[in-house]
Design goal:
The protein is an alpha+beta fold. The protein has helices spanning about 40-50, 120-125, 155-175, 245; strands at about 5-15, 20-25, 30, 35, 50-60, 70, 70-75, 80-85, 90-95, 95-105, 120, 140-145, 185-195, 215, 230, 250-255. The strands form five sheets. Strands 8-9-1-13 form a four-stranded mixed β-sheet, with helices on one face.
Length: about 260
C-alpha cells in the first residue's frame, strides 16, 4: 500500500546570477547578469531616519577583502516574492551578489551587543558558508553611521535595517519583473505531511533580549524588514513557521 502524503505548500525559488556589478546612475539589475549601484538614494534615506547620521555604499569585488569594515550587522540576499506570500508560490533571488550591512556611531562605538566584528574584512567574514558570500561573489557594502549611543538601542539598528531594506527594494521591484524561464537555477520545495507518521518540530531560539538584540518575522519580502514584527513586541512567545517559510526568509535577525 502506497504511503499517504499530503502536499500542503509548494515553493519555487528561481535564481538569477549576476556576473558583474559596477557604479551607475541608478540602482538597476538586468536578467543578463549586469547590476549597477548608485548613491542617489543616500541623502533621502538618511533624512528619513532620525537616528542615521550618514550612509556610505561601496562595491567590494571578489577577493578584495583586505580592507576595513565596521561591525557586520547582517548579510542580506536580494530576493523578492513574485507570486504568493512568504513560504509558498514563486520567489526570485539573486546569486553572485550579497548586501552586507555594517554600523558604527558618530563617536566610533561599534554597533553590536555582545561582541563586535570590526577590523579587516578578510578576517571577520567567513566565506562559502550558508548565508555568506562565496569566493566569487560581489558585496554591496551598506555602511551606516548612527547618532551617538544609538548603536546599542533598538531604534538605531532598526533604522539602519529599514534604510538598507529600502535600498534593496529598488532591486526587488525590478527582479519581480524578470521572466522566470530566464533563471540560471530553479529549486522546488514542498511542505508535506504523512498522516500516521511521527511529527517533527525543530525549536530555533532567536534573539529577543531587548536593547538592540531583536528578531523580526513575517515581513512582506524574503529577508525583508517592511511589515516585519519584532519577537520582543510579540512577547517572546513561541511562533510556528513552516519549513518553506523558513527557506523563504521569514526570519530576519536585527542584531
Amino acid at each position: 500500500m502506497a504511503e499517504e502524503v499530503k502536499d500542503l505548500r509548494r515553493l519555487v525559488i528561481k535564481a538569477f546570477h549576476m556576473n558583474d556589478v559596477e557604479w551607475g546612475v541608478h540602482n538597476d539589475i538586468s536578467v543578463d547578469g549586469h547590476m549597477t549601484v548608485s548613491k542617489e538614494m543616500i541623502d533621502k534615506l538618511t533624512a528619513e531616519e532620525e537616528h542615521l547620521e550618514k550612509i556610505d555604499i561601496q562595491i567590494i569585488k571578489p577577493g578584495d577583502h583586505d580592507r576595513w569594515t565596521n561591525t557586520i550587522m547582517d548579510i542580506i540576499p536580494i530576493s523578492t516574492k513574485v507570486l504568493g506570500k512568504l513560504g509558498e508560490g514563486i520567489t526570485h533571488t539573486v546569486t553572485g551578489v550579497y548586501v552586507v550591512l555594517t554600523g558604527v556611531d558618530v563617536n566610533g562605538k561599534q554597533c553590536h551587543e555582545f561582541g563586535s566584528s570590526e577590523g579587516k574584512l578578510k578576517e571577520q567574514l567567513y566565506l562559502n558558508r550558508a548565508g555568506t558570500p562565496g569566493d566569487n561573489d560581489y558585496i554591496i557594502s551598506f555602511d551606516v553611521t548612527l547618532a551617538a549611543g544609538m548603536g546599542q538601542e533598538r531604534p538605531g539598528p532598526t533604522a539602519a535595517h529599514r534604510a538598507c531594506d529600502k535600498f534593496i527594494q529598488t532591486y526587488r521591484d525590478k527582479l519581480k519583473k524578470f521572466k522566470g524561464e530566464k533563471c540560471t537555477e530553479r529549486h522546488e520545495y514542498h511542505d508535506v505531511v504523512r498522516p500516521g507518521k511521527k511529527r517533527v518540530l525543530i525549536v530555533k531560539q532567536v534573539a529577543g533580549q531587548g536593547a538592540m538584540y531583536d528578531t523580526h518575522l513575517f515581513a512582506k519580502e524574503p529577508s525583508g524588514v517592511e511589515g516585519g514584527r519584532s519577537i520582543i513586541d510579540m512577547g517572546n512567545m513561541p511562533v510556528l513557521v513552516t519549513p518553506n517559510e523558513y527557506r523563504d526568509g521569514i526570519i530576519r535577525s536585527m542584531q
